[in-house]
Amino acid sequence: EVQVVESGGGSVQAGGSLRLSCLASGFTLDDSDMGWYRQAPGKECELVSTITSDGLTYYADSVRGRFTISQDDAKSTVYLQMKSLKPEDTAVYYCSAARVGLVGCGYGQGTQVIVTS
User: How far is CA 66 from its chain centroid?
Assistant: First the structure.
């Protein structure tokens, strides 16, 4: 069964850090572009970051310089290191796997990030 499971969210004060993890099963990371989306209450789903199977990365302007995406193929895990968090980063974060059609928000449980000022 193809599945991604997100974890690592929580509540943190502005300026703090969190590391999100996405454990993939049913497919291999080196066969798929991976990424993270987020959705804040009352807002549209937003692409945060992606990493290709070749290691090329993309970041939304709102997180560039603060977030870092990486992956560990041996652990089938994608990470999103988030630093200098802002209240506007508050959202549910979803892992995406383009190869298997898991793209966007809402298809999994996601992981909640709350940043307080």
Answer: 13
